[in-house]
Amino acid sequence: RHSAGVTLLELLIGMAVAAVLTAMSVPIVNSTMSRMRMNSAVAAMSSAVTKARYQAIRNSDVYTLVITVPQNTYIVTDVTANVVSPTVPLPNAVAINGGRATVFTYTLCPNGTVYGAGGICTGNLNAPPALAVTYGQLQTNITVSTVGNVTTTVIH
User: Fold this and answer.
1) Which residues contact 155 (CB under 8 A, 6 or more apart)?
2) What is the model's pTM?
3) Within a 13 Å sphere around the CA of 28, how many CA atoms are in the beta-carbon half?
4) Hey, which residues does 114 pair with through a beta bridge?
């Protein structure tokens, strides 16, 4: 005798297997999405510093990059020409340095060096600010050296 379809028992077993596989995959998908959000935010901030530094070198002008928290936005300003670019949003899903209201300023010089706040290159002794980007249990630190190297370190 040939069966024309599946029995109710076979259908229930198939659905149970599918439900177990789905339940097992949810934490993996959530973890992957969290990591992707974190990587996106870190890439955006690192890219902003690098782009502003190259603009300073290309135009032979002093630039500043100002990151505002908790709005998670940044503004690049050509200090020499007094030209302010539009505000650019960063991913809001992450917290920068704990999410407390503050401003991080990078001064980018025509010779490629990077300093902290001040907007001047000669005599600026301010170190570039370090950033800690967190999303849930994930944390990545972003450091910028005075010669313009952007380094990211995954903490957890």
Assistant:
1) 132, 139, 140, 141
2) 0.82
3) 5
4) 108
Residue-wise pLDDT tens digits, 42-76: 999 999 999 999 999 999 999 999 999 999 999 99
Positive/negative CA dihedral, 85, 127, 62, 56: negative
* Residue at token pair 């302010």: 84
SS (H, E, C) the chain: CCCCCCCHHHHHHHHHHHHHHHHHHHHHHHHHHHHHHHHHHHHHHHHHHHHHHHHHHHHCCCEEEEEEECCCEEEEEECCCCEECCCEECCCCCEEHHHCCEEEEEEECCCCCEECCCCCCCCCCCCCCCEEEEECCEEEEEEECCCCCEEEEECC
pLDDT at 1: 64
Contacts of 147 (CB under 8 A, 6+ apart): 112, 113, 114
Rg (CA), the chain: 24
